[in-house]
Amino acid sequence: MLDGTALPLYALDRDGNCTFANAACAHALGYAHPGELVGKHMHALIHHTHADGSEYPHEQCRIFRAFRRGRDIQVDSEVLWRADGSFFPAEYWARPIVRNAEVVGCVVTFLDVTTQRRAAERWRQSEAQNKELIENSSQGIFIVKDWRLLFANTAFAKMLGHSSTDDLLGLQFSLDPLFPPKERSRLSAYHTARFAGAAAPARYECRALRKDGSELLLENTERLVNWQGKTAIQISSIDIGKYKRTEQELTRAKDVAEMASRAKSNFLASISHEIRTLMTTMIGVTDLLAETELNEQQLRWMRSFNTAGEQLMALVNDVIDLSKIEAAKLDLDHVAFPLRRLVRETMEMMRSAAEARALSLHCVFGPDVDETLIGDANRLRQVLTNLLSNATKFTERGRIEIRVRRDRRSPRPGKLLFSVMDTGIGISKSKQKDIFAIYNRGDAAVEGKYSGSGLGLAICRQLVEAMDGRMWVVSETGRGSTFFFTAQFDVAEPVDNDEATKRRHRTRPAKPRRRLRSPSARCACCWSRIAPRYDSSWRRF
Ligand code: ADP
Fold first, then answer.
1. Whose CA is nearest to atom 17 of ligand 1?
2. pLDDT mean by block of 10 residues, the chain; 541 residues
3. Atom of ligand 1 nearest to the CA of 444
4. Is the CB of 481 under 6 A from ligand 1?
5. Do the Cβ atoms of 141 and 237 come closer than 8 Å?
6. How far is the CA of 444 from the centre of ligand 1 (A)?
């Protein structure tokens, strides 16, 4: 029966010779058959040397000494040797065999504990690594249970102004000295809830106390862990006081910078308004002068004066727009308007300038474009005017074409895609990416033959973005450009055309007078850049 047991086992006589060994014992010691062990002196065979290679004399053998004294023994710190000369860590039990009140030998059972030892060693190493990681962490880490401090790393001790973890743990382990009274009940409620499996914040901010009594602000992250066989709470803490202070300083600095920028924008806008008022008067006077008797030379000077005035006016208007946008004072209208008419009218304003260069103007509407939209018609007109005015300026011959259709990439009705195409000088690839930046004049600046401020496209892009859209360009040097933009409108029932016309006309000069050029002053509600050559007979469609 003993022979069949899986536990390795052998028996010794009083001299330490083997009287019996089972198959499991022979197998564990590397012998083919238990018979190879019987009669052998077992200490000399399997127990003769320590793990460090030093000799293990028979008289010191703990099995031998124990059974001679008639005692049981359990040992787990020695090794047993195999037939091939290798050894393994073993745990063994020896029990004396007593017959007629006399010890006649003993029975030894043993286990190869290599696997357990390796697992224990691995566990010990990973424990040591974890400890090292926790110790060297720059984050404060501490372990608590039942409002008692079980462990704290050096970073946490230092954070609270203690010289070492021993100094901190010397606080009789209660958490009370670490947190101000008002925080104690909150944190302890979190812990109770966490232990009970109820909801408790895993991350929160709280005030803590330094050794000198001063307060600091911590951000704590909590989780349940197994600490020395018991469930406990591990808390990782960061001192966020300095981050908060930096954040506050940055916010303050940003507020100051924004205030300064707003003040600058407001100043610019006020000055520009003043200039615009004076310019309007000056250009008005040239109109009046043009109605008087002038000789050819005077008329030429007047025209030069008027042209310069127009350009200055356009620049001033752009500056006002930009400062309004920067000061976030851009309010969009939400009024019904007839889209096709607006686009055609805007294009028509360009006609005389285009025809002077033999450029043909075209306008194409997709069938899916709604007739009446709700939105800011004046801003839309401003964007279109700007793009058309650029197209006219940068195109010597060929055509300019506006296309409007629904933006099929958007599920929302009323989202339109506009394009303004020309066959002009085009824009080089390298300039295209910056073309919408303020004061960027692209290739025009290089060529030096086109006037401009470099503000128009920047304003257009921001207006379009305010209308929930975007603007981009596709262009090739010498082969023309197409500016695309999308804009979101609401769709309305068709408006009463007469009423709409009346409303539009309220914003325009009631009775167009003879002018040298376009009316430079904008109407009160319209910010659009006025076409360079505006025909005073406002045509209707
Ligand atoms: P401005 O025309 O007053 O210089 P914009 O912001 O309207 O300012 O345009 C910036 C630059 O973009 C222009 O100076 C020009 O180099 C380029 N640009 C704009 N539109 C066109 C166009 N249709 N064809 C070629 N270049 C253009």
1. 442
2. 78 93 94 94 95 93 87 93 95 92 91 90 86 86 90 91 82 81 93 92 94 93 90 93 88 90 78 84 85 88 85 82 73 91 92 88 93 92 93 93 94 94 94 82 61 81 93 95 97 60 42 34 31 29 20
3. 16
4. yes
5. yes
6. 7
